[in-house]
UniProtKB/TrEMBL annotation:
Keyword field: Signal
Coiled coil start-end: none
Gene3D superfamilies, per the entry: YVTN repeat-like/Quinoprotein amine dehydrogenase
Domain PorZ N-terminal beta-propeller per the UniProt entry, residue ranges: 46-203
The keyword Signal is annotated on this UniProt entry: yes
Highest rank taxon of the organism: Bacteria
InterPro entries: PorZ_N, Quinoprotein_ADH-like_sf, Secre_tail, WD40/YVTN_repeat-like_dom_sf
Organism per entry: Flavobacterium hydrophilum
Pfam families: PorZ_N_b_propeller (PF21544)
Name of the protein: ABC transporter substrate-binding protein
Amino acid sequence: MKKGFLYILLLTIFQYSFSQSNLSWEGYFSYNEIKDVSTAGATVIAASENALFSKNSETNSIKTTTTIDGLSGQTISSMYYSEASKKTLVGYENGLMIVINEKDGSMLKVVDIINKQLPSGIKKINHFMEHNGLIYVSCDFGIVQFNLTTSQFGDTYFIGDAGAEIAVKQTAFFNGFIFAATSGGIKRANSTNANLVDYNQWSVINSGDWSSVETLDSELIAVNSGGYIHRYNSNVFIGFLQLPQYSTDMRAVNHNLFITTPNTIYIYNNQMILSRQIVNTQVLNASLIFTCATSLGDVINIGTKDNGLFSSSLSVSAAFENNMPDGPLRNNVFALDVTPNVLWAVYGDYNSGMNPYPLDSYGVSKFREKAWLNIPYEEVFNAKSIVNIIVNPNDENQVYASSYFSGLLKIENDEPTVLYNEKNSGLETLTFVGPNYIDVRINGSAFDKSGNLWLTNNMIENGLKVLKTNGRWQSVSMKTILAKPEDASYTDLIIDKNGTKWISMNTEGIVGFNESTNTFKKINFGTDLGNLPTTDVRALSIDTKNQLWIGTTKGLRVLSNVNNFQSESQLTTKPIIIMEDGLAQELLYEQSITAIAVDGSNNKWIGTSDSGVFMVSQNGQETKYHFTINNSPLPANAINDIKINNKTGEVFIATTKGMISFKGSATEANENLNNVYIYPNPVRPAYSGTVKIAGLIDKANIKITDIEGNLVYETISEGGTIEWDTTAFGRYKVASGVYMVFVSAQDGSETKVKKVMIVR
């Protein structure tokens, strides 16, 4: 797919930038899970799962840094701000390190640790310690030196037995020695020794498994993995206090020592006298889990696992304030739905075998007018593993969320109102576990033209359900088309313009059902049975030409016309064959496809389980884009869902590591030309993008002329929006002035004239 790549970055160490392309992207990240905190002058910086945010104590302004700005979508494990160099270091679980220069905002992506010939599972960066311009990076294999001035790595210390790899959790300098808290004891070496790469220069001070070591003025403190605090007596570490829980973080700040456990923060002065103790119920409630803590002046900042960052006065007991950017509940958005005005997201999931266990306990999220509304698990009637969500197209205030364990959740005016299950509806529980085990698995959902809601109820005989507009339930037995419907797990459901329901499954291909004729038909694996590459189908979408696009775990298929459902006894799909390097190839051959969406220009946006997003032309012959973590702000190549705002053209992409959107221009065609508009208008000198002419009908003719009538551009619309690069047919940029835009319907029945001003 060479045509599809916007650009490729192949440097080991490079300045990370998306040039002007990042103007087309927007991030929607969760900041709830705090991995680390640091301070920079009057600002506290927090590292969440895969993004940073900072709050300035003087201005109260909050700034975010995400993959849109150049961060990786991988999981952050540590973060440190160097006051001396004005640089922020971000460490990742996979060994990646990013250096952010405060002076110019540049990002340096350093992959030396990733490239080390070591097992991938031991490259996690645990801690940064600065001394004399050098950063000592504690990793799961040892210690690495990093020079902040040259941005180059120095020596690597493998200090395990016989020079083996060993997990180093934290390092500290004390009285001329480097101390390392490791999984195999606390080790010490003379900092002036020129041969620290020799493991023999590192002596064991105390054996055992240690989580942290830190210098507190004239004290050296260490905590072992069991939560036992120790003080160094110039020879060995002596037990000081047994904490009731293990420690998740320890750091010295402004002559105070902060020791964090999951439910308590202990603050000691430099004489190791406990000055304050904060428990989670003082901050929020008993379910709150602490991850780290630091102070900025007289303000303590506490990071949590699921609830973001809290702050309060350090010296006096005061209420805690939650400081966090607006965002969804979690980054792993499993499914979403989008209308012109609102977006809904859910977080439950199931594995490749459609198993939802262990069950998830998350709520749902709504995004509207640049603000998030998060409805927690406790308010959705404890519905577990919510895997799908749909907005009623006739009533945007009515939403239905599918739980893959608890049934169907109805939300009205942002309030959960009822949980439909086996007791109060036509939904049914699976029975193979036993008669007393309740497990109501609802997945795919779609509204028909009459406003009825169709649902798939998995692993039962009557697997197709409908909730009528009058509130009554009906069931459709799948026994006439499936040999054993009790084993069927349905993955997707869509309804075409003829009212035919297309239902995909993970083991039985696709079933089509037309209610008016009570007809079932099946598309399966094998050339005589439908020509699917596998019976495991995960995504369905119908385009503007009534073609059914089918995403399977082993590639893509297309049913040429859904209207053939009634006339053909065996429906047959075909692959898309493209020419690449002079050879005929199958588009997305063997790719595991997870999502398909059709934009206003009938282009297809195709998500995969591990290869990012492909955007292909109407017929699939041209790959216009192929977005991955290497050439775009995608936080992960594993795509869960894709939905498109047909009014604005914005493409929302949900990944396992966060959700972003691509601000495209392919919008749905309008019924008339009453709402044609141009943006930006005027076009100012600093603007380098394209001019959009929106609100069009399909196949409208657009002519653009200068004020004297000279034609500078002409095109035919596909969908509701076209773009003009402000050139005269691509030859040169047009001069300053007023330009006339003439829009007419294909048959000449409608016309519209607009103006746009260009200022160079």
